[in-house]
Amino acid sequence: MDLKGMVLMEWLTQVILMAATAVAFVAGWVAASFAVAMYVFGAGVLVALAVCTPDWGFYNTAPKTFLEPVSSDEAQFNILDLFPSEAAKTAAEIRVSGGEVPTRYNGSSGKRRKR
Protein backbone atom coordinates (compact mmCIF):
# COMPACT_ATOMS: atom_id res chain seq x y z
CA MET A 1 0.00 0.00 0.00
CA ASP A 2 1.46 3.34 -1.02
CA LEU A 3 0.93 6.74 0.59
CA LYS A 4 -1.99 7.69 -1.66
CA GLY A 5 -3.56 4.33 -0.88
CA MET A 6 -3.19 4.97 2.84
CA VAL A 7 -4.90 8.35 2.50
CA LEU A 8 -7.72 6.74 0.51
CA MET A 9 -8.04 3.94 3.07
CA GLU A 10 -8.26 6.45 5.93
CA TRP A 11 -10.92 8.45 4.09
CA LEU A 12 -12.93 5.31 3.28
CA THR A 13 -12.74 4.17 6.90
CA GLN A 14 -14.08 7.47 8.16
CA VAL A 15 -16.87 7.67 5.56
CA ILE A 16 -18.00 4.08 6.16
CA LEU A 17 -17.99 4.51 9.94
CA MET A 18 -19.85 7.83 9.77
CA ALA A 19 -22.46 6.31 7.46
CA ALA A 20 -22.77 3.28 9.74
CA THR A 21 -23.25 5.57 12.72
CA ALA A 22 -26.02 7.53 10.99
CA VAL A 23 -27.80 4.40 9.77
CA ALA A 24 -27.44 2.75 13.18
CA PHE A 25 -28.89 5.80 14.91
CA VAL A 26 -31.90 5.90 12.60
CA ALA A 27 -32.44 2.13 12.84
CA GLY A 28 -32.19 2.25 16.62
CA TRP A 29 -34.58 5.20 16.78
CA VAL A 30 -37.16 3.55 14.54
CA ALA A 31 -36.92 0.21 16.37
CA ALA A 32 -36.65 1.96 19.74
CA SER A 33 -33.86 -0.46 20.59
CA PHE A 34 -30.28 0.23 21.54
CA ALA A 35 -29.39 -3.36 20.62
CA VAL A 36 -30.55 -2.83 17.03
CA ALA A 37 -28.40 0.29 16.81
CA MET A 38 -25.37 -1.65 18.05
CA TYR A 39 -25.99 -4.54 15.62
CA VAL A 40 -26.27 -2.16 12.67
CA PHE A 41 -23.15 -0.27 13.77
CA GLY A 42 -21.29 -3.56 14.24
CA ALA A 43 -22.23 -4.54 10.69
CA GLY A 44 -20.82 -1.19 9.50
CA VAL A 45 -17.58 -1.83 11.37
CA LEU A 46 -17.31 -5.25 9.71
CA VAL A 47 -17.86 -3.65 6.29
CA ALA A 48 -15.14 -1.08 7.05
CA LEU A 49 -12.86 -3.88 8.21
CA ALA A 50 -13.44 -5.86 5.01
CA VAL A 51 -12.90 -2.83 2.76
CA CYS A 52 -9.97 -1.18 4.53
CA THR A 53 -7.86 -3.93 6.08
CA PRO A 54 -6.76 -6.04 3.06
CA ASP A 55 -4.23 -4.58 0.64
CA TRP A 56 -6.60 -4.27 -2.32
CA GLY A 57 -5.21 -3.34 -5.74
CA PHE A 58 -6.82 0.11 -5.81
CA TYR A 59 -4.65 1.10 -2.83
CA ASN A 60 -1.48 0.65 -4.95
CA THR A 61 -2.01 3.32 -7.60
CA ALA A 62 1.38 5.02 -7.13
CA PRO A 63 3.86 2.42 -5.83
CA LYS A 64 7.36 3.50 -4.85
CA THR A 65 10.41 1.71 -6.16
CA PHE A 66 13.17 0.94 -3.72
CA LEU A 67 16.92 0.69 -4.19
CA GLU A 68 18.48 -2.63 -4.99
CA PRO A 69 20.23 -4.25 -2.01
CA VAL A 70 24.01 -3.94 -1.96
CA SER A 71 26.60 -6.20 -0.42
CA SER A 72 28.44 -5.14 2.72
CA ASP A 73 31.62 -4.57 0.70
CA GLU A 74 29.88 -2.08 -1.57
CA ALA A 75 28.19 -0.36 1.37
CA GLN A 76 31.49 0.84 2.89
CA PHE A 77 31.96 4.58 2.54
CA ASN A 78 33.94 7.31 4.17
CA ILE A 79 31.75 9.36 6.49
CA LEU A 80 33.86 12.44 5.82
CA ASP A 81 32.58 12.45 2.22
CA LEU A 82 29.21 13.58 3.59
CA PHE A 83 30.57 16.97 4.69
CA PRO A 84 30.58 19.67 2.00
CA SER A 85 33.28 22.03 3.27
CA GLU A 86 36.85 21.52 4.32
CA ALA A 87 36.18 23.16 7.70
CA ALA A 88 33.39 20.72 8.43
CA LYS A 89 35.58 17.80 7.32
CA THR A 90 38.39 18.96 9.61
CA ALA A 91 35.98 19.34 12.54
CA ALA A 92 34.54 15.90 11.82
CA GLU A 93 38.02 14.37 11.66
CA ILE A 94 38.81 15.84 15.06
CA ARG A 95 35.51 14.61 16.52
CA VAL A 96 36.02 11.13 15.08
CA SER A 97 39.50 10.96 16.55
CA GLY A 98 38.16 12.10 19.93
CA GLY A 99 39.96 15.43 20.04
CA GLU A 100 38.73 18.88 20.94
CA VAL A 101 37.17 20.90 18.13
CA PRO A 102 38.80 24.31 17.68
CA THR A 103 36.51 27.29 18.22
CA ARG A 104 36.76 28.44 14.63
CA TYR A 105 35.03 25.23 13.52
CA ASN A 106 32.21 24.93 16.03
CA GLY A 107 31.07 28.54 15.67
CA SER A 108 31.52 29.65 19.26
CA SER A 109 34.10 31.95 20.76
CA GLY A 110 34.51 29.77 23.82
CA LYS A 111 33.28 32.51 26.14
CA ARG A 112 29.94 32.37 27.89
CA ARG A 113 27.60 35.28 27.84
CA LYS A 114 26.62 36.83 31.14
CA ARG A 115 22.92 37.13 31.75
UniProtKB/TrEMBL annotation:
Keywords: Endoplasmic reticulum, Membrane, Transmembrane, Transmembrane helix. It is found in: Endoplasmic reticulum membrane. One of its GO terms (biological process) is signal peptide processing. It is a multi-pass membrane protein. The chain crosses the membrane at residues 12-32, 38-59. Component of the signal peptidase complex (SPC) which catalyzes the cleavage of N-terminal signal sequences from nascent proteins as they are translocated into the lumen of the endoplasmic reticulum. Dispensable for SPC enzymatic activity. Pfam families: SPC12. One of its GO terms (cellular component) is signal peptidase complex. It comes from Thecamonas trahens ATCC 50062. The keyword NAD does not apply. It comes from the Eukaryota. Its main location: endoplasmic reticulum. This is Signal peptidase complex subunit 1. InterPro entries: Spc1/SPCS1. The keyword Endoplasmic reticulum applies. Belongs to the SPCS1 family.
